[in-house]
Design brief:
heterodimer; A: about 325 residues; MetI-like fold; 2 domains; two-stranded antiparallel ribbon; 12 helices; about 70% helix; flat; B: about 350 residues; mainly alpha; 13 helices; about 75% helix
Chain lengths: ~325, ~350
């Protein structure tokens, strides 16, 4: 049977002979072409344009932020900014060296708390059977904690550390940040271990390895790049957080290492809190320093993110 | 030449003991995570109990916050938290879902491919990879929006957004002031700048989860729609979006949770005024911003009251986050089942 398209068209006289020779007799081919005059095609085109425009519009803030950071923050950036202490009001020089050290120290301590907990429980979650109640509840708790408001982590650390030790400290800040880092490390590590091909694990078990040996000699070495991705993302998140540090680590105008003593139980400066404090000040020098500190902070966070992403993509290849 | 006995031997006693110990250790730490999650909630709620007993439900319905007179209530903060989050959600969803569609439905790759076709390089070994690379670059850029710390967004909002929108706000108030949302003038920090920055901050969440949900829609569904003669957008509206809708909705709920708990950008931009106003240009306050501002200089007696406010925020965000995580998890497993 030849397709009888022409029969469906009213107004065109039926010619049985021509139809037999040419199945497309009487078809107006111009109507089958894509044309913007037709409402369906036009709407499709219109939506495409709208969605493209909205996506590009959504990227404007990113470029605006980055441009301003380089432009306003870059001007103030100098050796002094990295080596000096924050200035007093109306003082014209100064820097945020202690805040950089503080951010690194608090993040490092937070990682020391959350990495062992996150990694060991990730090993348990990855090895657990699907019907394991503990594993599925902890996994769900991790997912809920991912969206836990950072300020409440600060409130918790205030209640647990600051009220117990009687003062603001770097340790309290680290406890607050570790709560925010934990779900990222936990969930990405579990995924990383699960992504190791099953046959590698089975080969090791077939060789007579104990569970511990399988984990340490096969699963973890293969999963390390992805685990590090999670760790870098957690560090990037922790370094940028301000709210949990406001009333745990507070701020300080002095170095963490003062006269040879490591002041971990004293208020400690961090870049994020410095930006918040200085942004609201009426002094031009402080505002400029806030922009420079924001540039340094964003560069640190982006480097951590990029390292994490490159580790992840290397694993895929 | 090692003998058979040297190669194949059962695990030694030390190895067996280590194995049991390590397994117990892992299980112990998993219990620890569960316990930590419970302790976080309990610690905040227990610290708030004295204040809850003292102030009761009136704390939630009054409008005065005056530490000097020891009068505390947080209705304006609850209003500000919900109002700013819902407004940000509207903008964030519109742009976030648009970006998710743009990235998941191959518009970018098609556009780059069409451009390459003009210069006849579309199958070139180097340039031919460009469409995929440009698409990855765009989705990474959207994710970078999430990497920028909120305090930097606050700084940007203070020095860029507020000066930028002030003339327009002034004009809107002068000419259309009879509409409640334009009822006051923007005198600096206010609801609108906070909402703009907040919607930028939640957009990557919606885009990332929405894109994942769209990509999880089986290709054969899309192909079937094209085969029936649907245009690309008819297929998107009739097939792809409805199929992915639950995943996208889960992303929106998680983004809502994030907006409710966001602190720094709001503390810097919202104006911290105890006002309930429908106006977009009026200063306001949110629960998180209240905590950020009042906690550092709180006396021990005030801390209990702030813990009460923190409990309210905790309950709201936990409910929203549990709902979001549940929806995303449920949808993911459902679609996986469909693929098999």
């Amino acid at each position: 049977m030849t397709p009888n398209i022409a029969a469906a068209k009213p107004g065109i006289p039926r010619n049985p002979d021509a139809e037999a020779l040419d199945p497309f007799h009487g078809v107006d081919f111009s109507k089958l072409e894509k044309s913007l005059h037709r409402p369906r095609t036009f709407m499709s085109m219109l939506f495409t344009v709208i969605v493209s425009a909205m996506t590009l519009f959504a990227l404007i803030p990113l470029f605006s932020v980055l441009w301003l950071l380089v432009w306003r923050g870059g001007r103030k950036l100098s050796i002094a900014a990295f080596t000096q202490l924050p200035p007093a009001p109306l003082e014209q020089s100064g820097g945020f060296g202690n805040a950089i050290v503080g951010t690194l120290a608090i993040c490092g301590m937070a990682l020391l708390i959350s990495l062992p907990i996150g990694l060991l429980s990730a090993i348990f979650l990855a090895q657990a059977k699907p019907d394991n109640r503990l594993a599925s509840s902890v996994r769900f708790a991790g997912k809920v904690l991912t969206g836990f408001p950072s300020i409440l982590a600060g409130v918790f650390a205030y209640g647990v550390v600051v009220m117990a030790t009687g003062g603001y400290s770097a340790l309290a800040g680290a406890v607050a940040l570790s709560i925010l880092m934990l779900p990222t490390i936990l969930l990405t590590s579990e995924d990383a271990i699960r992504m190791v091909p099953e046959r590698m694990k089975e080969a090791a078990i077939g060789m007579g390895a104990t569970d511990t040996q399988v984990v340490w000699m096969v699963l973890l070495p293969a999963a390390v790049p992805r685990i590090l991705t999670g760790v870098m993302l957690a560090i990037a998140r922790g370094a940028g957080e301000t709210a949990p540090l406001l009333f745990t680590a507070l701020f300080s105008n002095y170095w963490l290492l003062w006269h040879g003593h490591l002041k971990l139980m004293q208020p400690t400066a961090s870049l994020a809190v410095l930006i918040y404090n200085f942004a609201g000040m009426p002094f031009a020098n402080q505002v400029e320093l806030a922009w420079a500190a924001a540039l340094v902070l964003v560069v640190m966070v982006l480097i951590a993110n990029l390292i994490g992403q490159s580790l992840a993509s290397r694993q895929v290849q | 030449m090692p003998t058979e006995a040297q190669i194949s031997k059962p695990p030694s006693r030390t190895q067996t003991v280590t194995d049991i110990a390590f397994r117990a250790l892992c299980q112990g730490f998993t219990w620890l995570v569960a316990v930590i999650a419970v302790i976080i909630v309990l610690k905040i709620v227990l610290a708030a109990l004295p204040a809850i007993r003292q102030y009761g439900l009136g704390f939630l319905s009054g409008q005065v916050w005056d530490p000097n007179k020891k009068v505390y209530s947080i209705l304006p903060e609850i209003w500000g938290t919900l109002y700013s989050s819902i407004l940000a959600l509207i903008f964030g969803t519109a742009f976030g879902v648009a970006a998710a569609l743009f990235l998941a439905e191959g518009f970018t790759a098609d556009a780059v491919f069409a451009l390459l076709k003009v210069v006849n390089l579309q199958f070139h070994p180097f340039w031919g990879k460009l469409p995929v690379q440009v698409e990855n670059l765009l989705s990474n850029l959207i994710e970078l929006l999430a990497a920028i710390p909120s305090v930097v967004y606050g700084l940007w909002g203070l020095f860029v957004i507020i000066p930028l929108i002030r003339p327009a706000c002034h004009w809107l108030h002068a000419d259309l002031g009879w509409i409640p949302i334009f009822g006051t003038d923007l005198s600096g920090p206010g609801m609108l700048p906070a909402v703009i920055v907040l919607s930028i901050m939640i957009l990557p969440t919606i885009t990332a989860i929405g894109r994942g949900a769209l990509l999880a829609v089986p290709t054969r569904l899309r192909m079937a729609a094209y085969g029936l003669g649907a245009t690309r957008w008819e297929a998107i509206f009739a097939v792809t979006l409805p199929t992915a809708s639950r995943g996208i909705f889960g992303g929106i709920v998680l983004a809502f949770g994030r907006a409710l708990g966001e602190t720094m950008a709001l503390a810097m931009l919202v104006g911290n005024a105890n006002v309930i106003s429908a106006s977009l240009f009026s200063p306001a306050n949110t629960l998180a911003a209240l905590l950020a501002n009042a906690f550092p200089e709180a006396s021990p007696k005030d801390v209990g009251v702030l813990m009460y406010a923190a409990t309210v925020l905790l309950v709201i965000t936990l409910l929203v986050n549990i709902a979001g995580a549940y929806i995303v998890q449920f949808t993911a497993s459902e679609l996986e089942g469909e693929k098999v």
